[in-house]
Write a structure and sequence with these properties.
Elements: H1 35-43, E1 49-50, E2 55-56, E3 66-70, E4 81-88, E5 94-103, H2 124-135, E6 147-151, E7 164-168, H3 184-189, E8 202-206, E9 228-236, H4 240-243, H5 250-261, E10 269-274, E11 282-289, H6 293-296, E12 317-319, E13 325-327
Antiparallel strand pairs: 1-2, 3-4, 4-5, 5-7, 6-7, 6-10, 8-9, 9-11, 10-11, 12-13
Length: 328
């Protein structure tokens, strides 16, 4: 039975079984929340991009800046299929250097307990994401522009397939009455001292949730100052690609941070941010509440980029009957 979302994109949050992933037969073909899963499993395939011609094959209309990947490490546990996707905004234009790394397995998000999602194998997705970040120009060195990898909380994401955002922190974001330096990730990036113990993380408060219209059609009062918060630790490493998934396990660490935070054991996102403290390189790893990538990371769109496929599918791509893609 077709879902209304297939006919009306304004109802893109239709999800018959939100507690399940996008591989569930009741979810596939019914909700645009599963569009990323459809893209990476049906359209983002290994032969989609022709390296000789430097273009996508004609049959890959909906791939659009999507690369099929298998982890390059010699470790078999890291050789799990995933996809790299250059993110597009709600207008359909490409974001400036904003990328997504997604597992090819059906994983709803940070709350998923399915095999290969947040378990020991799933931890290696962060290593592959960091490797991709270096490959598209982000730097792991002291003094480089601040950037982060961010996985949104269940209540702060628009699609129902796990995806790690890779982008610079938004240095231009402003909001009336808000000190720009108080955005949560900007504050976190400036911390000179952070705990290294997961059972006693550093608590950092900052701004977030500045655009209430994104989440409600009724007027909402602005939340209290410093409503967004992070519980974070600093983890030393000179080679994140080598160590993530092996000695540094972000999903496991997130569960430990959640237990220590005193917050409810659901509703948080997870971020990794390169940060050198003193002479030692490392990563800030933290769980975040009441904010997301759209508020904290650079979501500016490329000037002059032709309007194309929007990975969030707002008003552009819908799912039709029989799991077919419909162009709006």
């Amino acid at each position: 039975m077709p879902c209304p979302a297939a006919a009306r994109m304004t109802e893109h949050y239709c999800m018959p079984r939100y507690e399940s992933d996008c591989a569930h037969p009741d979810n596939i073909g019914c909700s645009s929340r599963c569009i990323l899963y459809v893209i990476i499993t049906q359209h983002c395939v290994a032969d989609a991009y022709n390296h000789t011609s430097g273009s996508f094959n004609a049959s890959c209309e909906f791939c659009n800046m999507c690369w099929d990947r298998i982890g390059s490490s010699s470790l078999s546990a890291r050789k799990v299929p995933y996809a790299l996707l250059q993110a597009r905004g709600e207008t359909g234009a490409l974001y400036n250097n904003h990328w997504l790394v997604l597992p090819k397995a059906a994983c709803s998000g940070i709350e998923s307990s399915s095999p290969g999602c947040t378990d020991a194998q799933g931890e290696y997705l962060w290593a592959n994401a960091f490797s991709e970040a270096l490959g598209v120009g982000f730097k792991f060195r002291n003094g480089a522009p601040d950037w982060a990898m961010m996985l949104n909380a269940p209540n702060r994401r628009g699609v129902h397939q796990m995806h790690i955002h890779i982008a610079h922190l938004d240095s231009q974001r402003t909001s009336p009455g808000v000190d720009p330096s108080r955005w949560l990730l900007r504050k976190l990036a400036r911390q000179q001292q952070l705990s290294a113990v997961a059972s006693a993380p550093s608590r950092v408060l900052g701004e977030g949730f500045y655009d209430a219209s994104r989440f409600s059609s009724t007027p909402l009062r602005r939340p209290p100052r410093d409503w967004a918060r992070a519980y974070a630790v600093w983890v030393p490493t000179s080679d994140p690609v080598r160590d993530l998934g092996r000695t540094i396990k972000p999903f496991q660490l997130a569960r430990q941070l959640s237990a220590a935070s005193g917050e409810p054991s659901h509703g948080y996102g997870l971020l990794l941010m390169p940060r050198q403290l003193g002479a030692r390189p490392g990563l800030i790893i933290g769980i975040v509440w009441s904010t997301d990538d759209w508020e904290q990371l650079d979501v500016s769109e490329m000037t002059g980029d032709p309007i194309g496929f929007s990975h969030t599918c707002h008003n552009y791509i819908g799912l039709g009957e029989g799991s077919s893609l419909l162009k709006r």
